[in-house]
Write a structure and sequence with these properties.
Two copies of one chain form a homodimer.
Chain A (H helix, E strand, L loop, with lengths): L1 E9 L5 E10 L5 E4 L6 H8 L7 E6 L2 E2 L5 H11 E4 L11 H6 L9 H14 L15 H13 L5 E5 L7 H16 L3 E5 L3 H6 L2 E6 L2 E2 L1
Parallel strand pairs in A: 3-8, 3-9, 6-7, 7-8
Antiparallel strand pairs in A: 1-2, 1-4, 4-5, 9-10
The complex binds adenosine-5'-triphosphate (2 copies) and magnesium ion (MG) (2 copies).
One adenosine-5'-triphosphate (ATP) sits at the interface of chains B and A.
Amino acid sequence: VIELSGVTKTYPGGVTALRSVDLVIGYGELPAIVGPSGSGKSTMLNLVGTLDRPSQGTVRIDGHDVASLSDRQLSALRARRIGFVFQQFHLAPGRDALGNVADGLLYTGVGKREREQRAEAALVRVGLGERLTHRPYQLSGGERQRVAIARAVVGDPPLLLADEPTGNLDSVSGTGVMKLLCELNEAGTTILVITHDREIADSLPRQVPMRDGQVV
Amino acid sequence: VIELSGVTKTYPGGVTALRSVDLVIGYGELPAIVGPSGSGKSTMLNLVGTLDRPSQGTVRIDGHDVASLSDRQLSALRARRIGFVFQQFHLAPGRDALGNVADGLLYTGVGKREREQRAEAALVRVGLGERLTHRPYQLSGGERQRVAIARAVVGDPPLLLADEPTGNLDSVSGTGVMKLLCELNEAGTTILVITHDREIADSLPRQVPMRDGQVV
Ligand SMILES: Nc1ncnc2c1ncn2[C@@H]1O[C@H](COP(=O)(O)OP(=O)(O)OP(=O)(O)O)[C@@H](O)[C@H]1O
Ligand SMILES: Nc1ncnc2c1ncn2[C@@H]1O[C@H](COP(=O)(O)OP(=O)(O)OP(=O)(O)O)[C@@H](O)[C@H]1O
Ligand SMILES: [Mg+2]
Ligand SMILES: [Mg+2]
């Protein structure tokens, strides 16, 4: 479902975050992407999620060469087929938890009432049933992280990209999140998990180690 | 150096984040504050750091009742005696790494040239000597976290409050940060560390467990 061929990413200013990366992720996989801070993990996830374009090389999602898609086609791809948990969450500050998660269903043709019902169910699933009306500044770090997770999964996307999904969670909440991801994976979701947690990485079926912008 | 007596914190809207907390931290201690997501850890750290006031009870820093200090005296206390590593970093988006850290010395009477030299040394210490001119959006999650750490320690404050300082770091970088904190502690800095990392918590001389707004 994901194929990177010879992917290089150099940022303006000269930092090469990825160097000629080749990687194939099959449908239904659940790999852990691991490696030191600054090794290029989030950069790679952004390219897979079509949030950025490579400087060189090809990114294929579902067989489509991402470079051949228009911005409009890319938006549609992202809205319906890719769920993203960002390392820094990126919640809408003016929306409460329910609104933030319901917005994850905005381009899926689902009506407002159903969006809110499904958003509530997703938030209850991550233990936030009592925080629906809180805005991000009224939530703890780990609560914001769980809102970001709920928003990414509420639309049941076929591909889920999770950047450090348990970084702000205690081991009990973190285990709960990993259990949720494993259940989604068993139901068919392909999930890439960037994690610094050695135990979590080792518990997943495959590990993709990175160092200095390369897959080791 | 820190004394909380009967401290309660209830947010507008009714959430009681802390309930009648009593806690004494002595000079030179290095306790780990642990507990589930939402248990009140960051709230407690904000009260200790005088960034917020309790709804009930007393917070004493260095023997001073925080409630009896004017806003101006509180600002002076924070600028010179307390270093803060925030759970979400709060870096200035328009300043590069060097500027962000140099600003940690702004109210200490140190001239610009020395601020920048000390900022550079602090950044080199956390492995960011090659990222001095990068702005926060040009840094990885773990790099931003390390800039926040460098900014908190550059002024060598007697009290350091660190909220999840290794949450975005791989184990090698995380170990490096804990080593830095232990060295500062040996040199006399009192350090409170909120952490979800069991190994890190167990490696510190004291653990303060929290649950549902109370110290257990
Ligand atoms: N401004 C606010 N208004 C209302 N409730 C709040 C506000 N800030 C925090 N809370 C609530 O207070 C509780 C404690 O928050 P706090 O940030 O102290 O938790 P924490 O222990 O640091 O959690 P984490 O490990 O997830 O960072 C949380 O349940 C949160 O929803
Ligand atoms: N916009 C940018 N401009 C310049 N350099 C950048 C930019 N964004 C990221 N970088 C650099 O690219 C490198 C890789 O960044 P990336 O965010 O992919 O790392 P990471 O593996 O996710 O790290 P972490 O574990 O700390 O989150 C880092 O060294 C970073 O400084
Ligand atoms: Mg990252
Ligand atoms: Mg917190």
